[in-house]
Amino acid sequence: xxxxxxxxxxxxxxxxxxxxxxxxxxxxxxxxxxxxxxxxxxxxxxxxxxxxxxxxxxxxxxxxxxxxxxxxxxxxxxxxxxxxxxxxxxxxxxxxxxxxxxxxxxxxxxxxxxxxxxxxxxxxxxxxxxxxxxxxxxxxxxxxxxxxxxxxxxxxxxxxxxxxxxxxxxxxxxxxxxxxxxxxxxxxxxxxxxxxxxxxxxxxxxxxxxxxxxxxxxxxxxxxxxxxxxxxxxxxxxxxxxxxxxxxxxxxxxxxxxxxxxxxxxxxxxxxxxxxxxxxxxxxxxxxxxxxxxxxxxxxxxxxxxxxxxxxxxxxxxxxxxxxxxxxxxxxxxxxxxxxxxxxxxxxxxxxxxxxxxxxxxxxxxxxxxxx
Amino acid sequence: xxxxxxxxxxxxxxxxxxxxxxxxxxxxxxxxxxxxxxxxxxxxxxxxxxxxxxxxxxxxxxxxxxxxxxxxxxxxxxxxxxxxxxxxxxxxxxxxxxxxxxxxxxxxxxxxxxxxxxxxxxxxxxxxxxxxxxxxxxxxxxxxxxxxxxxxxxxxxxxxxxxxxxxxxxxxxxxxxxxxxxxxxxxxxxxxxxxxxxxxxxxxxxxxxxxxxxxxxxxxxxxxxxxxxxxxxxxxxxxxxxxxxxxxxxxxxxxxxxxxxxxxxxxxxxxxxxxxxxxxxxxxxxxxxxxxxxxxxxxxxxxxxxxxxxxxxxxxxxx
Lengths: 372, 319
Ligand SMILES: Nc1ncnc2c1ncn2[C@@H]1O[C@H](COP(=O)(O)OP(=O)(O)OP(=O)(O)O)[C@@H](O)[C@H]1O
Ligand SMILES: [Mg+2]
Fold this sequence. Notes:
Shape of chain A: elongated
Distance between the termini of chain B: 44 Å
Bound molecules: adenosine-5'-triphosphate, magnesium ion
Oligomer: heterodimer
Order of helices and strands of chain A: HHEEEHEHEHEHEHHHHHHHH
Radius of gyration of chain B: 23 Å
Strand order of the largest sheet of chain B: 6-7-8-3-9-10
């Protein structure tokens, strides 16, 4: 006797790989997205990207000396200056996200409040340059900033040693947009294959009376659900491997695979089918359930930081994102795969696993195995 | 009664299905209203009734998919309302649900083995494929098959555990006449093998052709039961003499004294026959221009039985 659960898994799996559209959505589409987004956001620039925050405002207008300094930096032609608003309370975090999004180097120069006054009074003023020592451009960039600063000081105060550039080391881990994007694509793929897979195998199979037929055999509801979840795990593993391999082969994205990655993939393979089951039981008609699945997965995909960092979202959206299960899968996968932040990965994995338990249990309870 | 009496074993002569005063209510809607019937081993039993009569509700109670709200039912001696008995029933019955579809992207053979794997023992897929005449479609995916072939896959799937009783819920609904005949052929083969078959249908001819016993169900109640012949003899009414293609003109040419003659379908004349009348009528017809028309004596059918019992006819669609 072959195991019933094995039979169900292999039945789902055969149905999956024999459908061209399934293969497209679970394999080809994510890869297409990677190539597309990688090409759009991955193009580098020959100039150095440099974020600049001029905090020295007077009545919303930069003070003359601070503005003069910015102009001189600009005139060197060596930088792509990206201005950070003076009100930005946490410029470093802002730069981290924005740089990732645009695939720029994470470097920030801060002209402090009181720069104009300090220079005028003849005191020493300090300009902070945040950059990663491992940044390949760091040495040359530092050299350019230093020489610009010295010559500017000589020009305005006649004394080159009045102005200091204070380098501050930050660890950027060299995360490019594509590094950020790959875990998001994995999360997105787990979301869609999970939700739509469950809607299909529970909603459509109900319409086709396959579930009714199975309920007249010795198969139990638990075995049926285990079979579906087992199949989802296999599919999730395939997606993960294919996407990571592709990311490495084309863009050289290297990742750390650890126990948290495994935990997150397991969580996702329970969580998203669980959501799909809940849907399929509330919306009984398979076609409407499909529409409902679309209505849920698409906004979730965007809000949960699949394509760009959540920090760039408007505040209200950020709040909503906190209620999106995908948020924790995406964050966890990034912490584990890219940022090597085991503690944060663990936190996210725990949240994702709890949500997974909730949804798979709810979906199982809601599912009518027999009639009525 | 003790908590767990051993399930009564089914002897040779016992009833395969035993239904006593069974009822099922959905809120105020009484889908099945106090029905009783039995099925004997080796019998083909047809549950005949229009849409919404309560056929599926009854069958699914017997398949342990729905709980009755009143009365009792036993399948193979096991009580359908008892959990421990339900497990025994599931091992031993074969089911073809109404509107069943197998898995689209599995082949005929894979589908049979898929459902077969749910049981401890399964019949050889190739033998079943032979039984339902699908040899050359064996490796074809289910979704590529025509409606009639799909239904034959459903039949094979319902037999995969070598069941003691097979429940077929409207196995030919929606099929073209040819495909319907093919399905009938399979059911006849089952009968030949001595299988007990519980068939639901709204096709009168299907019940008449296949069934040993027919129960007519209407609005949740059984209104008549018996062999097709018994039903027709008891409720079918008179035989009818049909004169084909005689038309309005033929009516005028009829010998006097046949007041009940009426025109039907495409110009056929129908004359109800009382016992012993036939010879006289034929002789008088011989004197008229109608003598060279095609003349036929039609026996009442289950259609007439249903019409006589309910005052309604059942359409092709079962309404
Ligand atoms: N799950 C349900 N909830 C409420 N009412 C139901 C349910 N299932 C069936 N009914 C009602 O019970 C009655 C009998 O339905 P049933 O499906 O048993 O008829 P049927 O003879 O199988 O008809 P058909 O030929 O259309 O299949 C109908 O009035 C139907 O509306
Ligand atoms: Mg029905």
